[in-house]
Amino acid sequence: MDERVREHAEVLVDWSARVEASDDVVLSVGPDAHELAVAVAETLGERGANLLATYGSGEITRAYLRAHDGDFDANPAHELALVENADVYLSLGGGRNTSATADVTGDRRRAYNEARSEIRDRRLGTRWVSTVHPTRSLAQQANMAYEEYQEFAYDAILRDWESLAEEMAQLKALLDEGSEVRLVSRGTDLTMRIEGRTAVNSAASVAYDSHNLPSGEVFTAPSATEGEVTLDVPMTIRGESVRGVRLEFAEGEVVDYDAEQGGDVIGEIIETDDGARRLGELGIGMNRGIDRYTDNILFDEKMGDTVHLALGRAYDACLPDGESGNDSAVHVDLITDVSEDSRLEVDGDVIQRNGTFTFEDSEV
Amino acid sequence: MDERVREHAEVLVDWSARVEASDDVVLSVGPDAHELAVAVAETLGERGANLLATYGSGEITRAYLRAHDGDFDANPAHELALVENADVYLSLGGGRNTSATADVTGDRRRAYNEARSEIRDRRLGTRWVSTVHPTRSLAQQANMAYEEYQEFAYDAILRDWESLAEEMAQLKALLDEGSEVRLVSRGTDLTMRIEGRTAVNSAASVAYDSHNLPSGEVFTAPSATEGEVTLDVPMTIRGESVRGVRLEFAEGEVVDYDAEQGGDVIGEIIETDDGARRLGELGIGMNRGIDRYTDNILFDEKMGDTVHLALGRAYDACLPDGESGNDSAVHVDLITDVSEDSRLEVDGDVIQRNGTFTFEDSEV
């Protein structure tokens, strides 16, 4: 077995999910994530955890959803009982076709997800972590050769997470103390209020309220957004290519938008509900192991020298206890490159210029 | 998709497991049983059942068991809760290597199984059915080409089960009414008591107390076995080739044995415990879709013109309520060909000669 697969498994089990002896672990395995699953099973065995493997196949989901009449039972007892009794939920993405469910209607998908909201909430109540095994289909989506993609993915995943967490803590401190963020770049001059909000140091570990591997971003929940922003990183959203999105905000809401490509999708998203017109997240990518866009949000939004903004739902972890932030049925991330002609200010002080943080400068 | 895969799924869901709307179904998927799993998911969706897919991989089991220290937690809560809340448990066998767990020690395996006895009992309390997807590794084990093996497997699986159940009911009636069975063949003259025992008409459906697809046998729990038997169908037991087994019984117990090949394994089995010296099952194969041995007990023991005897544990379904039959940690089937020079008698009346039943004759 490729030694990197074994290291990936150990980072996932030990750093990310903090698995201990006797933890009841659900391991969701994508059809092409088998090799990673074998390495994770070995690591779980070494730790004395209890393993149940589930099968996360888009083709099975598609077949089931299309055949069903759409009137789904709420929270089936067997699956609910499984997640209620799980301590840890590890999801190993990796199918044979990233478009495996492309012909399932949005309505059918929503009905299924809504019927399973308690299962989802219980799963999010475990020490859950999502990762992917680098597969050929993900390489294809990234427009990369398979071995090239493997190198890319492991560069992103096999970081010195402890040291990155320390670095990101400096940004978190700046955001936690600040009241207003301003982002200035080509086609962008945007201000957001962040007073009273708590930034998450997303260091790929449940110990940091972080549930993605790779991670490597600091994010918070902004409000009262004003100005305009150009989000230039190309991505696929709802099966459509989206590129060069421009959003204009007044009193916290999108008042105008256009896009070089995929403007219809942006319009659709904004029309979802009131919350979809407001930002739920300001995220700052700090994973410098990610050096290019691969049309996979798990990686793209963590890329160093990028900032992302999400239309829609805010994360509770960013809000004071008991306060609920922007609510919406959607959470759609859009990304902008800040490596050139860019600066990020907190309360008027520049904290990042052209991708380099001031605390990095001072360390040099 | 091969239409036979779809038919297999429908037989499994409708005939075998009797799935109804809102049933909570666990679908255990072998790594190479993906295509059958997709067809089963579609059928379950059509029936309005609730699907949770688990991943049944020998390689994952091997990695986990070898890495673990062997001191397993008893009945982990998440897996126990899953099976406790399941109505139906469908197991789709089909890996890439039938020897995937060959280097896991017997001790480690036993410790794992013993720690999970309540999970097993709960699973056996559902409407459970085991089947296999014809894979390349099963073709290899059968010494057959892949497409040849597919034809073989579907001939066995896609029967007219209703009509076979009616045919087998005639044999069940003869055994239920009888007190003593005698099997006479080359190297065989064996008598067994079956008074008060109930034969199972194993018609590949939970409605018939039958949990294998394919099935197609009638079996009961004999006692007081006397005489000798030669079991000439070659098979692999515990990784060893076994062939030409001869057992001699007195007062229900094996008093002598030998084998052309694999005698050591037979000795090992007989030494397991007291129950392993006695028969737990007399089974009569009636699936004429199975026309050759493929070294897979799921198929071999159901083959038409064969009789099998199991050393060890008897099935409760054959015994009067509250009565427990032969008990043992093992249940090992051995098979004999009765297509020539053979007869089967119940209370002195011949019921089968050279594989043909008297009730078949009278119908001709």
Automatic annotation (TrEMBL), chains A, B:
The Swiss-Prot or TrEMBL record annotates one GO molecular function as: metal ion binding
Q: Which residues form a coiled coil?
A: none
Cofactors: Mg(2+); Co(2+); Zn(2+)
Tell me yes or no: is Protease among this UniProt entry's keywords: yes
What SUPFAM superfamilies does this protein's entry cite?
Thermophilic metalloprotease-like
GO BP, one annotated term: proteolysis
Q: Report whether Transmembrane shows up as a keyword of the record.
A: no
What does the sequence similarity comment in the record state about its family? Belongs to the peptidase M29 family.
- UniProt xrefs under PANTHER family: AMINOPEPTIDASE, BLL6088 PROTEIN
Q: Which residues form the signal peptide?
A: none
Species source reads Natrinema soli
Pfam families per record:
Peptidase_M29
Q: Which domain of life is it from?
A: Archaea
Protein name, as recorded: Aminopeptidase
Q: Which UniProt keywords apply?
A: Aminopeptidase, Hydrolase, Metal-binding, Metalloprotease, Protease
